[in-house]
Amino acid sequence: MKRFFTVFLTAALLTALLLTGCTSTAPQEAEFFAMDTLMSVKLWGEGASTSDVSAEINRLEALLSATRETSVLSQLNAAGSAELSGDTASLLTQALSLSERIGGAFDPTVYPLVEAWGFPSKEYRVPDQTELDSLLSCVGTAHVHFDGSTVTLDAGTRLDLGGIAKGYAAQSCAELLKEKGVEAAILSLGGNVQTIGSKPDGSAWVVGIADPADPSQAIARLTFEDSMALVTSGAYQRYFEENGVIYHHILDPQTGLPAGSGLLSVTVLAEDGTLADGLSTALFVMGLEEGTRFWRNSNDFEAVFLTSEGKILATEGAAPFLSGCEYSVIER
Ligand code: AMP
Ligand code: MG
Fold it and tell me: Relative to the alpha carbon of 98, which ligand is closest?
C-alpha cells in the first residue's frame, strides 16, 4: 500500500511538473498596429504580458511620431525649438551621433524631403529639382543645435526619427521585458525583429529575410539561439510608382532622391536595436561597396546585403547564421 502511494505521489508530481512546464512553454502572443506598421510579439514567462509591449510602443509613438500633431517631435518641428528629456533626448542624441559616425547617409533632418515626396501623407508626388535644391539647404545635422536638453532647429529644418524609432522602441521593450523577468521573447515591429533570451523548448530562433519580389515569402533564413536585433531596410517596404518609375522611402540626404545604391535590402544584426535600425537605413543609402568599407572599420554589427542583380552577400559574422539561399561571404 505504502509503495502504491509513493508511486501514485511520484506520478502526480511528475504530471504537475509537466503541466507547469507546458504552461511556461506556451507563449503569449499578440498582434497590433502601431508606428504605421503591423507588429507582433510572442513571449514566454510570467513576468510581463503582451500588453506591456504594446503600451510601451504606444507611449513612444506618442512622443516620437513625426505625423501626430501632439507628439513632442511634431511640436519641436512646428516651434523650431523645445526642451527634451527622457526618451526624446536619448533618441535624438543617438540619431545625431550615428549620423556623425556615418558621415551623412543617415540623417534625421530628412523630414522636409520625406514630406515633399508625400510619404507621411501618402499623397505621393515627384518633387522637381528646384524644390529639392531649396529643401536640401535645410537638410544636415549642422542645422540642429542640441545641448542634451535644449534643441533649436534652423529655419526650415525638421526632424524625422522614422529611420531609427522602431529600433529604439524594440530596444526599450527588450529592456522592459528583461527587467520584468520574462524568460524569452520575440518582437517583430515591421522590419525590426528583436529576440530576448533563448527559446524555452531549446529550439533556435529562425527569422526570415523578406524576398523583395514577394515580401510575404522569405528569400533566406537567419538561425540563432540568443538575444539579437535584426533590422531590414528595403526599397520594397514603402514606395510608389509614377510613369513606370518606382520611388521608395529611403532618401539619399545628399541628393534628396530615393537612394539608388544598387541594393534591394540590407539586414543588420547587432546587439542593440536602435543601432541596428539606424545602420540598416544608412547601409541601404551607402550601398554595398561603401557599406562593406564601413563594416570593416566597425566591430558592433554584421549585415546581409541583397543587390539589385539578385546576389546575396553576408559579412563574415552574419554568414554562420544564414541558410536557405546561395550567398557570398564578405571577408574582413
Ligand atoms: P527604415 O525603414 O528604418 O530604413 O527607415 C526609413 C524611414 O526613415 C523613412 O520612411 C523616412 O522616414 C526616414 N528616412 C529616409 N531616408 C533617411 C535617411 N537617409 N536617414 C535617416 N532617415 C531616413
Ligand atoms: Mg532604419
Answer: 1
Q: Which helix (H) or strand (E) holds 194?
A: strand 192-196
- The rounded Å distance from CA 113 to ligand 1 centre is 11
Closest ligand to the CA of 161 = 1
Domain ranges of the chain: 2-330
Q: Which CATH superfamily is domain 2-330 in?
A: ApbE-like domains (3.10.520.10)
* Ligand 1 centroid to residue 281 C-alpha, Å: 6
- Look at ligand 1, atom 4, and give the residue with the nearest C-alpha: 281
Q: Whole-number mean pLDDT of the chain?
A: 93
Strands 239-242 and 205-211: unpaired
Residue with cell 566591430: 299
Which residue's alpha carbon is at the smallest distance from atom 7 of ligand 1? 163
Ligand 1 closest atom vs CA 238: 10
C-alpha cell at 121: 501623407
Residue 104's pLDDT is what? 87
Report the amino acid identity of residue 25: T
Joined together, the cell numbers standing for residue 271 give 546587439
Average pLDDT over residues 277-301: 98
Provide the 3-class DSSP secondary structure of residue 234: strand
Number of Cβ within a 10 Å radius of residue 29: 11
DSSP string, 262-301: SEEEEEEEES-HHHHHHHHHHHHHHHHHHHHHHHHT-SS-
Residue with cell 523645445: 82
The residue among 219, 260, 264, 257 whose CA lies nearest residue 237 is 264
Provide the 10 A C-beta neighbour count for residue 4. Answer: 8
Query: Alpha-carbon distance 178 to 176, whole Å?
Result: 5
Neighbours of 187 (CB within 10 A): 26
Please tell me the pTM assigned to this model: 0.92
